[in-house]
Amino acid sequence: MQLRVISAAVIYIGSYLPLSVILLCQNFDKDIYNLGFCNPWIIFATECKLPLKNPIFATSFLIACTFCFFIAIFTLYKVDPKKNINIIESKPVPADLMNYVLPYIVSFMSLDYQDTSKFVGFTIFILWIFWITYKSGLIILNPLFVAFGWRLYEIKYSFAGSGDEFYATALSKIELSPKQNCAQETIQDVLIIKK
Description:
The protein folds into 2 domains: 119 residues, no CATH class; 64 residues, no CATH class. It contains 7 helices and 5 strands. A hairpin with a 2-residue loop joins strand 4 and strand 5. Helix 2 runs antiparallel to helix 4 and helix 5 packs antiparallel against helix 6.
């Protein structure tokens, strides 16, 4: 299973939405917060400041992660499986979440948007983990998909009315078992099964 790089990047970036919230909270500046809030109609005035030490990076990362997360989830929910298949064998793929957990651990080791060398190092680390995860074909093991009830399977299947057998990776909203009939749709070599 190999997704295109753009699709894989959207899924990967979206999976770090919780990390972007953590980093946003760590970037909170209580001194600016104590000054009070601005009138929302003059948010771009020079006297208005977000209560963040580095608002551009903190909010940009949060917005990018949120946008990518919603695109990935929206795409999954818009898929309307119509091709019927018969499951011959199914095996759940264990969630190797270590690739997603490591950046969270790193974020608690005094990562600061204002320390350029640490931020650049963290960015290189994230890109490296992305590339390894992408090349290993595990990018679809997004922990946020799991939180929304999706599960990854390796399946052996045949199309209804055909004896030809195929192997594929399936992202399913339901539990898959042998001799089960399902409707599926394919998105870049991944079978999406909802019912």
